[in-house]
Amino acid sequence: MLLQIDNIKISPIQQEKEIIEIIDIINSKYDLSISSFKIIKKSLDARNKNNIHYNYKVIIEIDNIEASRLLDYDNIEKYNPYIIPETVKKIFNESIIIIGSGPAGLFAALRLIESGAHVIIFERGKPIEERMKDIEILETEGILNHDSNTLFGEGGAGTYSDGKLTTRINKPEMFWFYKKLIENGAHESIAYEAKPHIGTDQIQKIIKNIRNKIISSGSEIRFNEKVTDLYITNDKINGIATSKGNEFFSNNVILATGHSARDIYTLLHQKNVSLEKKGFAIGVRVEHPIDEINKIQYGNSKYMDTLPAAEYTLTYNNKSTNRGVYSFCMCPGGSIINSSSEDGALCVNGMSMSKRDNNFSNAAIVVTIKADDTDYEHHRRHRRGSPLRLPTPHNPSSNIEPRAGKPTHPPTAHNPLSGIDLQREIETKAFIAGGGDFKSPAQRIDSFINNKSDNDLPDSSYKRGVIPAKIEDFLPSWITDEIREGLKSFNNKMHGFISPNGMLIGAETRTSSPIRITRDESLQSISVKGLYPVGEGSGYSGGIVSSAVDGIRTADMIIEKMTEC
Question: Least crowded by CB within 10 Å, which of 53, 324, 474, 560?
């Protein structure tokens, strides 16, 4: 019988050795000979800085009769494992087309291939080796490749933004996902750590292994080949056209392009594929020296040299405006990176290597944007040249100044693409505020709080460099007002968070998709059968894990339709 032992408190120094000691105590008390265990959960508890420790949960295997005695022991119970959903072999009469090689596309491909399918993946960007060179050119020379950058290319945005596997979902497909990651080179600890993290350097190796597995199966990954058209007949998908002048035909197309493939959203809109606006978030990156965050979170712990780079999760809800401010994608011991995909427009993100040993820690500090914040009335004012006023219950004068020219998409009462205009407007202003060349505008946190200008700035991890600017130069007041209140709240929770050594660097606009590609219970578009929108670009998931799981579930939907072997 498998038994689960919970609530094992271990010091940050000994860790697994102390688990063995606890097992030995159980052996001695019950005259047993348990010799091995398996860790199934590990989390760091730093709430009490005088008693920082890890909490472990382990399983042991023991004879049923002896196990019955142990069930009376505190924190021991029968272990009921999750069943990892395995694939079923089916007959596929055509290739399955997948658009995008991010987590959703890659893991949908692996799932389909195991079931016997031939898969063709179309990726607008380059393989990782070439993609990393393009990112380096952007960081050193300020030259952006529109299709090969931190957002586009093999592995998707997650390949160059940390490899965090933190998720709120709890679906059985997660365990198949972890299993495949481990098979392709991830450390087995990702399956049990409370906040698993692979690191940008390691996830690149894993993605290469996945690529090799897909190709060795006989399936294809076609890099540098952007999908430019969808062939739809009688509300059913039957093929695609690509930037290389090629056509491919299939009645099953998985759309896994990510949340920044704006040209795809435009194409879908032109094809009358059902879309709707959804909430998202916009703000800045906050960066502190790593020692400051470690000190705030760990105090004067005697384990300071042993503990990992400290993390935090912060939230604030402004009851008067009904808007939330929260930290997002926290990168301890990480770097701020460029996350632009268009010329003349700047946005940033964060990442960490596997060791998380950089001198800085950063996180997004973002404000919730409601779906109706970019509706017809706002665009009507926008086009007339008056300020685009966005609603807050007790701040009707909040506004964002008009962007030069007309909105990218014609305003309608229910224009699903209007959130992209807001993103672009802010990114364009951030580019200008940074002086161009993809340098980033930045402001000390305390200067921002007190509405003061900076003459100089602290060192930063952002490789293109930071330029003194006011956050209001690119963010509207209805967002900056919320960030100020949020930072004050965060400082009450983490004393010292408002620091002259910390900076706000912006803008952070690509937290999630502002659009949802509406789909039904079979995960197909409600307007085009056979078209499966998945991952972050679909508007139904966010992050590596939930996107991969969405891809796996979608693959299973397709497999279910096929004939048994």
Answer: 560
